[in-house]
Amino acid sequence: MDLSNLKPAEGSVKNQGKRVGRGQGSGKGGTATRGHKGAKSRSGYSKKIGFEGGQMPIQRRVPKFGFTNINRVEYQGVNLDVLQQLVENKKVADTVDFDTLLANGLVGKNDLVKILGRGELKAKLKVSAHKFTASAKAAIEAAGGEAVTL
Predict the structure, then answer these.
(1) 69-78 core/surface letters (b: 16 or more CB in 10 A; e: else)
(2) pTM score, two decimals?
(3) 40, 59, 110, 131 - which has most CB atoms within 10 Å?
(4) Over the stretch 64-97, which tens digit does the pLDDT of each residue have?
């Protein structure tokens, strides 16, 4: 190593890029590479989401439609095959209530629970929920269990 082949360490020197707006002598003064006039030449410019170059944006071309009922009650559905799976995995023994479903991550703490009739239930369970479908209630009672509405 001698003075003719000294180099900085790899990655230590970064190319700083062009310095714009630093006077005419730099060659990048005046408009500072932004061109003349228009929104993009101004400070503080940011293009809004969905901007299509002045064309009417899609979110304004497409008509609004539909209706949201503010009185709608949403239930979190839990199917019979899921309850049977809990029994097979020995997570529940004889009763299934809201706390059991919450502990197993099937419902949230503010949810209302509706038991749905998909799958079959072989175990005798006492199931407590806010609602039951007719087929689910029939299947629980056919297996010798009990359906309790909260």
Answers:
(1) eeeeeeeebb
(2) 0.57
(3) 131
(4) 999 999 999 999 999 999 888 888 888 888 888 8
Q: Are 125 and 105 in contact (CB under 8 A)?
A: no
Q: What is the DSSP letter of 64?
A: P
What's phi and psi for 4, nearest 5 deg? -85, -20
Place 44 in a pLDDT band, splitting at 50, 70 and 90.
very high
Q: How far apart are CA 79 and CA 87, in angstroms?
A: 13
Q: Which tokens is 16 given?
A: 């700083």
CA distances from 106 to 6, 84, 109, 148 (A): 65, 13, 10, 18
Please compute the mean of the pLDDT values over residues 5-15 and round it to a whole number.
Answer: 90
Determine the Cα–Cα distance for residues 51 and 39; give it in Å rounded to an integer: 13
- Residue 106, Cα to own-chain centre: how many angstroms? 17
Please give the pLDDT value at position 70: 95
pLDDT score for 93: 81
Pairing of strands 112-116, 95-96: unpaired
Length of the chain: 150
Q: Say if residues 114 and 77 touch (Cβ distance below 8 Å).
A: yes
* Residue 149 to residue 82: CA distance in whole angstroms: 19
